[in-house]
């Protein structure tokens, strides 16, 4: 039911009205990740940012590898508070939210 309402609402807006600020996108992404806990283990994830790679190869248990490294990453904080955060490393999900 909520999905149908949101799709109907989106259908009534023009393309220019559908753009969201990068900070809002980052906060929504963080909230979605928090709701999905625990995540798929990093040892089974194909595309990883540099910090996820470190956790994946570290000699730690699956419980830690199923955690969300973004919760303690400075990229999340930058993305949630700056419109164009200085995040440049590959495969960081927050990099894709930057304003053009």
Structure explained in plain terms:
With 100 residues, the chain is mainly α. The chain has one domain. It starts with a helix and ends in a 19-residue tail after the last helix. The chain is globular and about 50 Å long. The chain contains 5 helices and no strands. The protein has helices at residues 2-11, 22-35, 50-57, 62-65, 74-81.
Any descriptors?
mainly alpha, 100 residues, single chain
| Percent of residues in helices | 40-55%
Low-confidence stretches: none
Q: What can be said about the biggest beta sheet?
A: none
Strands, total number: 0
Terminal CA distance = 34 Å
Strand content: under 5%
Roughly what is the average pLDDT, rounded to an integer?
76
Which outline best applies? Answer: globular
In DSSP terms (H or I, runs of 4 or more residues), the helix count works out at 5
H/E order of the elements?
HHHHH
Number of domains as seen in the coordinates? 1
Could you tell me the radius of gyration in angstroms? 16 Å
Helical/strand content category: mainly alpha
Give a short summary of the structure:
This protein has 100 residues and is mainly alpha-helical.
Q: What's the structural blueprint in terms of helices and strands?
A:
Layout lengths: L1 H10 L10 H14 L14 H8 L4 H4 L8 H8 L19
Helix pairs in contact: 2-5
């Amino acid at each position: 039911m909520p999905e149908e309402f949101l799709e109907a609402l989106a259908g009534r807006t023009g393309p220019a009205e559908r753009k969201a600020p990068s900070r809002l996108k980052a906060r929504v992404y963080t909230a979605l990740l928090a709701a999905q806990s625990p995540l798929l283990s990093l040892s089974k994830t194909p595309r990883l940012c540099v910090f996820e790679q470190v956790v994946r190869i570290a000699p730690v248990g699956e419980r830690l590898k199923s955690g969300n490294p973004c919760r303690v990453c400075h990229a999340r904080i930058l993305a949630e508070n700056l419109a164009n955060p200085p995040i440049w490393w590959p495969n960081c999900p927050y990099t894709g939210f930057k304003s053009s």
